[in-house]
Write a structure and sequence with these properties.
The protein contains eleven helices and 17 strands. With 355 residues, it is of the alpha+beta class. The protein has three domains: 176 residues, 2-Layer Sandwich (Uridine Diphospho-n-acetylenolpyruvylglucosamine Reductase, domain 3); 64 residues; 64 residues, Alpha-Beta Plaits (2-Layer Sandwich), CATH 3.30.70. The strands form four sheets. Strands 13-10-12-11-15-16-14-17 form an eight-stranded antiparallel sheet.
Length: 355
Amino acid sequence: MDAELVSLIGKVKKAAERSRPLRIRGGGTKDFYGQILHGEMLDTRPLAGIVSYEPSELVVTARAGTRVKDLEAMLAEQGQCLPFEPPQFGVASTVGGMVAAGLSGPARASAGSLRDYVLGVQIINGKGELLTFGGQVMKNVAGYDVSRLMAGSMGTLGVITQVSLKVLPVPPAESTLMFDLSETSARQQLNRWGGQPLPLNASCWTDGVLLMRLRGAQAAVAAARKIMGGQVVEKDAPRHWMALRDHRHSFFHLDWGEALWRVSTPDTATPLNLGPTLVEWHGAQRWVKLPAKDGAWVREAAARAGGHATLFRGGDGRTPVFTPPAAAVARISQALKNEFDPAGILGPGRMFLDF
C-alpha cells in the first residue's frame, strides 16, 4: 500500500473518531453540483495514474486522482474511448469525481450511462476501511452491485480510490445532420427514427434546430444519411458536441437570477413549456433555465411528464437540488449510508438537506 493511500485512510479514520465531516474533492470542477459543500477538504489528486490497461480486453483501471483528459488521451492512442462521454467542466476533472458525480454526455441515450461501464471500484468507507468491489469483467457480481452504486453517490458512501472501466473502440464513421423542426416535430421525428435500424448516437434540439449525430460502420452511416435527409454539418460538428458535453454551448450561459434545471423524462413526453429549453438524449433529457425559486413549478411539470427534475446549477442553498426520494427509497438509502458511513462524516448535506 503506497503512502498516498495510507495517508487518506489515516485522515478518514481520524475524522471518524472525532466525528468531523469530510469534503471529498478531486479537481473541483463539479463543486457547483449538489446541495452544499461542508467539511475538511480531502484531496484525492495525489492518487493519480493508470494501474492497468488491456486494450485487447477493453478494460482500464485508473486511480481516482487521474485526470479524465489524460485517461481519454491514452485511450485515443489505441483507438478507444469512454463511450458515455463524461462531461468535463474543466481540465482538472478526475476519474474519481467523474464516477462520484455519475454524469454522462450526449451519447448516453444510445451508448449507455457511466454506471453501465463501471466494472469495479476500490473505496475507503466512513470507518477508514479499504474495500474492493467488482473486478475487471462484466460478469463479476454476486448479490448487490456495490461498484455501480458508487456512480452518482457524490462521495457520500465512500472515498473512491480506484476504478475499473469498460472501454470501447472509437466508431469508424461519424456524421452530423441538421434539421429545422419545432420541439414537437423534433420529438416525433426522433421517435420514428428510434424505431428504425439507424446508427443514432446523439441528438440536440434548441431554438428550432435539431442536430443528429450518427456513429457506426461507414456503410451504416452513409445509408442513414440517405434515409434521414437533412443538411450535413461537417466543419464545426465535433466542436459543437464537445461544447454541449461540457456546457460551453451558448444555451448554458445563465443570466443573473437564472438557474439550470436538468429534467429527466420519457423520450415520448410532450414539451414541458417551461421556457428556454435544450433537449438531449432523443428527448429523455431536457435542460431548462428558470430561477431556483420556481422549483415547485419545474418539479410538478416534470412529474406530470413522468419524470423528475434536478437543480443542476445556480441553486440558492434552500431549494432541494435533487428530487426527494420516495419513502421506500429513502429508507434503503439511509440503510446504505449507515452501513458505509455510520458516523456520517462523508459529504454531509451534499445530496440532500440533511445537514
